[in-house]
Every structure is written in structure tokens, then in C-alpha cells.
């Protein structure tokens, strides 16, 4: 899924084909009205629901902000499927008065017809009607891989389906090739969309979008030229590094590049053992039969790029793990070697010892000891090497995402920003899990995640109901409630209002300490993370991460699996 994640991050949708015998075909797409941040949040939420469909060979996840599907055949041109297309209705009537029901039904059908007609041509449309007592809003979108004929067929079927929800307040059609929704409440983002009286984009806005696109292309070309010049400059700087200093070249921490290259069989990918959330793990055997393990990581920082790890064996038969790095200046060579010299002296039973490095060849390598107790070749996590280095004037570090969903802080999950409060968030999740006796990564249709359950009980002044029932009430209720409240404080979405770890420690150990009240719910919400984005509608920012109140699944190994989500508010 990493390949399609990059496509969604870049353009809001993507298709990818993986493997062979069988080949896995995947499609992911966000609704056009979502911001980049909300799109990533929605896609991340959709990914967490895919394990429900295992071991089926196919799966579909419909969220109000995005769609995700995989299958063992090329389905990209499919538009309708009578077996798996679904309709989700809110049976609550828009009004209790009969004449208002008739008025609403007529108006809603008109809006649905309008939005279907426009979306059939353009692939996406929103419409609204504020006439009368009750307003109507609608959104329709086809998937990028469906042609115009298939899009029209899909939306026409979707319109017939949602019309059967009337006079209900809300209706959705979750079809194979498209999505259609109407509601009495504004649910899509219109911060940057100016519409005419019928709720569609005006020609002036279309022209403005085209002009903005051309300007973006020009800026991209200009940026590409600058990047190329920078690349040439970096290449010249690398050539100017020359030979290493005598102290470095004679150090017992310095390994020859050719030695490590041969030890790793030239970084051969055929030795791959498996793949985790942070990278791939490889295994190798030295001439004396000793095994080595290597984990390939993909991180980006302003200082260096950790491309990947590989296994290796030295001529004396010693197993090592090799980390490949790229450097730009002599200053970084000196600082890097000083870092290696310092860290290589650290020895601890829970740490992988750094044995040395190679910085003479075309790429720089780190050499680690090989842990033979099978801990590393079964579970490799974290960065397998040097700690991340914060620049003196920086408060956070932007890096690639690697970790377990459900425990990562929102700012790290969405933007890759690793702040000092990220661990506070993870600790808060752990606190709630311990007290509730549930894992945060386990969802239930009735209550959702642990964080959602605790917040719901907190708002209803019934926190003790969240506590692990296995305790059978044998615990001090006040202390347990205080721990839950501390967990909610730690898992607030905004970094600035989370407590520090020292404050958390004081809350948990000082009985006289007055624990503050949480200011935000512990849900990933883009509008909370971006306080300045006041123009973003509340419904749009919550669409990405709303927890489903109803879903259905088909997960037999021989039949496609489906998860349809009804995002109730």
C-alpha cells in the first residue's frame, strides 16, 4: 500500500498493481472537495479498516471523504455491481408536516438530478437549494478510472437509489464506480468553491482555476531548475571531499566500502525476509556461516537520507548490519565520524552496538553488530541506528512516517512532524488502554476505539463505565477516573495544549494535584490541528475521520469483501 499512499499524497487518487500470481489491483480516491490534509486523514482511516476483510481476495471501503478498493482482477472500468452496490438512508424525516415533506421531496429530487447531470460530464459536482424551510445539499463524484459512459450509468443508478431515501433527511449511494449523497446539512467544503444560484462553479472561477494551474506549472519548472542547480552543486562538493584525513582512514572504526559491498552480496534484494511498517528486513550468511540481518528504512531529513539497511559479513566472519547514507559536504563527514566514534563506545544489552562506518566509497555505510537471539530478525522497529539530530533552531523534525497506527500523534501521522509531545500522545493512548483493558487498534461497531469510548463517557460524566470490567469494581473509582482524565489530556489533537511528561508524572503521583479538564476530544481532526484554517467547514474536516455507526461485510475467501461506512453525525 505504500505506492498508492504516495499517489494519494501527491494527487488525491491513485491506482497500483502489485505482485504476480495473483496480481493485486488497488484503487484509492478522495472526494474533490477535501483538503490535502483531510484527504490523507481519510485515506489513513480507510487503511485501518482493510484488515476486517482479510482473508478475502477483494475489499471495498466507502467513507464519506474517500474510497479504497483492492481486488485480484482489473476492475478499474467497472461502474455498477448489483450485488455489492449499496444504499444507506437516514429514515428520520426532514419534517413532521406532510406538506413540508412533499416540498422537501420535490426540491431534493431536483437537486439530485442537477448534481447528477453535471457530475456525469465533469466527474464531480456539488449542488444546493436553500429555498423553503429545509435546505438540501448534494455531492456526486465518479472514480477517475471510470469512463464518461460508465460514470453516467453509475450516477443515474445512484440517483434512483437515494431518491428511495426521501423524505428522509439524508441518503447515500455507495456504488462501484461512483458516490452520491444528499443531506439537509452542509457536509462538503466550499471554502474555495464559488457557486452560481444552482450551486455550481461559475465560469469566472473555472478560468481562475486554469490560470492558477498554469502559474503552478511555471513555478514548478522554475523550482525544478533551482533543484537541478543545487544537485550539480552538491555533486561538485562531494567530488571535492578528496581523501579522508589520516585519523579517519587509520581508525579501527573505518571499514573499506569494497569489503562491506562483498559482505552483503552487493546489497542483493533476494535475501528479503519480510516487510514491516518502517521498512524491509533481509538476512544474509557470511563465509563462516554466520547470519546477518538488515532492515531497509526510508526516511528523509534536511541533513541526510537513510536509504536502506543491508546485511553483511566481514572477512573475519563477523556478522554486521550495514546502513547506507548519502552526504553532501566535508563538514558532515567530520561530524558523522565524530558521531560514530562517540556512539560506538556505548554498550548496553538492549542496544545494537555500532561497530564503525565506511565513508570512502560512492555511498556512506554504518556497520552494526548482528544480534543472534532472533530479536531483530523477527521484530525490527525504530530507527536501527543513530538518533534523529535536531538542529539548534528547530522545535520539531519532519520525517517519514513509521510506527503503529493508533499510537502515533496526529501531527506525525499527517505531516511527518516529530515533536516532543508525540510521545506524550502515545503515552496517553497507553494509559487509556491499560485502564480500559482494550487495545486502541481494536474497533467495535457499538463504541468505536478506546479513545472514542473514554471521551463519550467523559462527556456524559460516566468515566467509571470505561474501566476494565475484569476488575469487577475492585478499584478506587476516583483514582481510576483521574488516570483516564490524564490520558485524555495527553491525547488532545493540538500539540500546544498537551501537558509535558513532567506534568503528566506529577498528575499521576501527586494526590493533591488538581488535574485540568481536557479542552479537545482525542480524535484526529484537521481543523483542530490547523487553528488558522477558519474557512474550512466543520463537516468537511470531520468527514475524513468520523467513525462508522453502521457497516456490513462479506469476507468469505471466495467472494469479494465489502465495508460500507455510514458516517452519522
UniProtKB/TrEMBL annotation:
Residues 1-75, 82-187 form the Gnk2-homologous domain. Residues 526-569 are annotated as: Disordered. Coiled coil: none annotated. Residues 527-547 have a biased composition (Polar residues). The keyword Zinc does not apply. Residues 548-561 have a biased composition (Low complexity). Gene3D superfamilies: Gnk2 domain, C-X8-C-X2-C motif, Phosphorylase Kinase, domain 1, Transferase(Phosphotransferase) domain 1. The chain crosses the membrane at residues 204-228. Keywords: ATP-binding, Kinase, Membrane, Nucleotide-binding, Receptor, Repeat, Serine/threonine-protein kinase, Signal, Transferase, Transmembrane, Transmembrane helix. Residues 267-524 form the Protein kinase domain. It comes from the Eukaryota. GO terms for molecular function: ATP binding; protein serine/threonine kinase activity. This is Cysteine-rich receptor-like protein kinase. It comes from Thalictrum thalictroides. The lineage of its organism: Eukaryota, Viridiplantae, Streptophyta, Embryophyta, Tracheophyta.
